[in-house]
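Design a sequence for this backbone.
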């Protein structure tokens, strides 16, 4: 008869023997037939349009809990800001149509998209004030999970997905996200082999003949926050060619342009490059910040692939808005100064953090400049349709806007991790609120919609020139 330790050893041996023959188990399910009117699609929820209404989009950057708390503060301020639209007073938060998010920013974005105002009741206790890193570590150290992690069919990111699914998102799927009353949420990851941005919606999943509805939202969040080396990719099986999918005409037109319009061609290619499942039977998704750490590229790529804002409006079958605003919450930090204070060769971890951070900061600048130019063109296009000017703004909420150097340096040196002290979380929330309220572009929105007067803050961050 086996003793209790003996039973444990036997179970471990059996489990280890099974690991050698365990096959890949996809997190995504196949789609039998494409149905264009079904599923969580690009802009499948109504977009504000018509006289006097705002088309308001938010973009939440990556940056772990730092980014999540900073974005959460912006949501709090939008909740507490009222504007007058069509003669009635409403919360500006209720005018948010879409939130595009990356990595740490996906947690508040998805939570708000699923549960609405509940986020202000329990998101702090469920996520912001949790030591997620410690929770994941101890979860991985459990004997049964150690065994699972020895299998090639299981990974650290799948373990994280299970934790997020149970402890943060209550087992919610994309079908639940579609059924909710919240704005449309764009969760962005990066295709590891090609570097393309991969956004979780049924339109993208049609390409790989997969059904997004039953997929836990935690899988998309885990993919978007799968920092290379620390976490492994989330892998999808590519079922392309099995559901009758063919690219829509506007995508085919963009592909046909080839080198004559390279940006439009590349934008369209990022949607359809997964169509050959023999060459690409699996899709490995990692941290969305590698392709776009600000969450701004989705709208830009979609408009470019469609051939411009006019064509995109036709595709969405909607009228242009009277006021178009994108608020990007940028939790970008400064380079680590410690590297330059020593003659010793930096550690591998320090070098990887520095290289990736430098690339993200530089790419962020280019994305901001591209977005500003794109929004200006879209505003002109909307104005041509409405017959009068349509104000179009990009509002960046970031630590660089903090006037006081000591305070600015404090925020810009907060590490990217999934554990921060409660005081630091509260500081980030307060900064998000105050920076949004003090922003001149945001004040212009309030004046345009005759918002009730708001109390002044002692700190009035000066705008900065991104060209510098």
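Sequence:
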């Amino acid at each position: 008869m086996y003793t209790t330790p003996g039973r444990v050893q036997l179970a471990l041996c059996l489990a280890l023997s099974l690991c050698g023959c365990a096959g890949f188990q996809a997190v995504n399910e196949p789609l039998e037939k494409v149905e264009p009117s079904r599923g969580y699609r690009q802009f499948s929820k109504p977009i504000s349009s018509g006289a006097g209404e705002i088309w308001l989009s938010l973009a939440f950057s990556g940056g772990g809990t730092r980014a999540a708390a900073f974005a959460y503060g912006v949501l709090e301020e939008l909740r507490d800001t009222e504007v007058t639209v069509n003669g009635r007073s409403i919360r500006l938060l209720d005018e948010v149509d879409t939130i595009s998010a990356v990595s740490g920013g996906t947690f508040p974005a998805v939570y708000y998209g699923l549960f609405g105002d509940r986020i202000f009741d329990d998101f702090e206790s469920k996520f912001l004030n949790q030591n997620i890193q410690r929770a994941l570590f101890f979860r991985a150290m459990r004997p049964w999970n150690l065994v699972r992690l020895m299998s090639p069919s299981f990974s650290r990111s799948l373990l994280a997905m299970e934790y997020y699914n149970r402890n943060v998102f209550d087992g919610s799927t994309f079908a639940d996200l579609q059924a909710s009353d919240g704005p449309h949420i764009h969760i962005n990851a990066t295709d590891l082999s090609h570097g393309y941005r991969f956004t979780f919606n049924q339109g993208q999943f049609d390409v790989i003949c997969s059904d997004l509805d039953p997929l836990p939202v935690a899988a998309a969040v885990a993919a978007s926050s799968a920092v290379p080396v620390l976490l492994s990719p989330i892998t999808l099986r590519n079922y392309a060619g099995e559901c009758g999918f063919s690219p829509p005409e506007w995508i085919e037109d963009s592909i046909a342009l080839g080198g004559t319009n390279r940006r439009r061609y590349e934008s369209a290619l990022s949607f359809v490059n997964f169509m050959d499942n023999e060459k690409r039977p699996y899709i490995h998704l990692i941290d969305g910040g590698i392709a776009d750490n600000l969450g701004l590229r989705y709208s830009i790529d979609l408009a470019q692939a469609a051939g411009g804002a006019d064509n995109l409006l036709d595709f969405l079958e909607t009228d242009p808005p009277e006021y178009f605003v994108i608020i990007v919450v940028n939790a970008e930090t400064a380079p680590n100064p410690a590297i330059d204070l020593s003659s010793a060769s930096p550690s591998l971890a320090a070098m990887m953090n520095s290289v990736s951070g430098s690339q993200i900061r530089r790419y962020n600048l280019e994305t901001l400049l591209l977005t500003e130019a794109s929004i200006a063109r879209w505003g002109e296009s909307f104005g041509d349709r409405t017959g009068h000017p349509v104000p179009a703004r990009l509002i960046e909420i970031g630590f660089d806007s903090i006037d006081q150097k000591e305070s600015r340096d404090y925020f810009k040196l907060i590490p990217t991790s999934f554990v921060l002290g409660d005081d630091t979380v509260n500081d980030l929330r307060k900064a998000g609120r105050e920076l949004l309220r003090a922003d001149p572009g945001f004040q212009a929105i309030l004046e345009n919609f005759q918002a009730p007067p708001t109390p002044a803050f002692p700190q009035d961050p000066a705008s900065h020139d991104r060209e510098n």
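DSSP finds 19 helices and twelve strands in the chain.
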